[in-house]
Design goal:
Strand content: under 5%
Mean pLDDT: 96
Number of helices: 13
Distance between the termini: 49 Å
Shape: globular
Number of strands: 0
Low-confidence stretches: none
Length: about 220
Amino acid sequence: MTTVTEILSKLESLGNPKVRAHNAKYGAGSNQFGVKMGDIRAIAKTVKQNHLLALQLWETGNVDARFLAILIMNPKELSIAEVDAMVRSERFTHVADWFSSYVLKQHPEHEAMRQTWMQSDDLMAERAGWSLTAERVAKNPQGLDLSALLDRIEAEMPSAAPEVQWTMNTTLAQIGICFAQHRQRALSIGERLGIYRDFPVSKGCTSPFAPIWISEMVRRKEK
């Protein structure tokens, strides 16, 4: 499979109604086949890295093609302008999160983009900015003003778009988990705002409600 047409045909043949329904429930549009993640990863292993093909697949706007594109593109070959356009073009958060994990965090200019997106009025760019900020809080916090981040979260998260709330909440949790001196304030903000307090959680999974999430992760670290 070396062309977009061949890959789309393969993806269509692997489409699954249950996966399509699941994707639709979480915000995917009609431009999807509903391919299982395992099948997408298997195709990626066959195709291997192919940056030009990845860009062509991304341009289709198809959910499954974009998942595959993320796995076979080379982040270092993308310009800042290209990354910015790709972030803003995707509204399905599952694809956006894959893009953040496999592309944004690997891009050599991710810090510059993070700073720009933290001030963006585009909800998916802002979501990406908070995602990168949560990553930096956990792994490379030097130079971050954590008190100022908590100020923004406290003021902005209640009225933020759901897409942005999710990664903003992740940043709140990471601050509380990683920094004992800010933990009580992070817990208090999460408790007062109450965002995700009643979020349904599968057995064995940790709630995204910040006070529960922080407390559980700290408990595990201290065992």
